[in-house]
Write a sequence for this structure.
């Protein structure tokens, strides 16, 4: 079954009304995980999912039988529009966007590194710029490249890369780089997590790539919602355990 056009038009207003009820009944309340029932629809970028989701899933499995988290694919979700429309509750994503009613806070920094298969035939010791540019690369598809500064920074400092293959996830970049002579670029913490299982060696980028941040985003209607606040707190705590305190807001 699919929602009708009218139901999709109404969902934002209905969720606003439900949010008002929750705020009136739930101010300063403590969530009872044993009885609380909720479906949360979220988007989590690949760079955060291995670190933030397992602690959350463990707590739900152990203590919150009525809570389910539905994780949507980032590449096919209109994140800002769906946060505003109420069809998406929360996004942990890679870019800043200014939109009325959308709250956005940095959750962790992202430092890029180069990954290559172990014993890569062209890399001897430190990866230099000449070798970096001579190798083929596996990158994001064009629709996802725009979400980071990587392509801009490399093009500015070194020129255009040769790209035989474009992938639609960071996991795919790791898998392809680990089984070919192509180089990939991943967030450092994710690269460290994946390196043993994907036969990867980690190298410092020979071209300067500016640090950027990942953000947590939600609509202001959910700011005081007791369940939504619980979800944000759990994900933020998991991020702090992995990455340390989040960067200050500008």
């Amino acid at each position: 079954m699919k929602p009708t056009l009218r139901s999709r038009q109404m969902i934002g207003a209905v969720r606003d009304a439900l949010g008002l009820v929750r705020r009136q009944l739930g101010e300063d309340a403590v969530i009872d995980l044993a009885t609380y029932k909720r479906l949360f629809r979220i988007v989590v970028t690949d760079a955060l999912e291995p670190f933030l989701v397992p602690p959350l899933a463990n707590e739900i499995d152990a203590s919150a039988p009525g809570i389910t988290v539905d994780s949507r694919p980032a590449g096919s979700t209109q994140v800002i529009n769906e946060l505003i429309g109420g069809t998406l509750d929360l996004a942990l994503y890679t870019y800043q966007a200014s939109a009325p009613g959308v709250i956005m806070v940095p959750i962790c920094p992202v430092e890029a590194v180069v990954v290559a298969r172990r014993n890569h035939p062209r890399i001897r010791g430190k990866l230099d710029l000449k070798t970096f540019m001579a190798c083929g690369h596996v990158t994001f598809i064009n629709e996802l490249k725009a979400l980071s500064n990587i392509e801009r920074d490399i093009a500015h400092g070194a020129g255009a890369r040769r790209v035989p293959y474009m992938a639609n996830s960071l996991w795919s970049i790791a898998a392809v780089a680990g089984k070919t002579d192509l180089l990939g670029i991943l967030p450092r913490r994710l690269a460290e997590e994946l390196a043993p299982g994907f036969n990867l060696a980690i190298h410092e980028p020979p071209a300067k790539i500016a640090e950027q941040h990942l953000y947590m985003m939600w609509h202001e209607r959910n700011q005081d919602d007791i369940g939504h606040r619980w979800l944000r707190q759990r994900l933020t705590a998991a991020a702090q355990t992995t990455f340390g305190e989040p960067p200050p807001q500008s």
About this structure: Strands lie at 38-44, 67-72, 90-93, 102-110, 112-117, 136-140, 162-167, 184-187, 200-203, 212-219. The domain at 5-109+213-243 is CATH 3.40.190.10 (D-Maltodextrin-Binding Protein; domain 2).
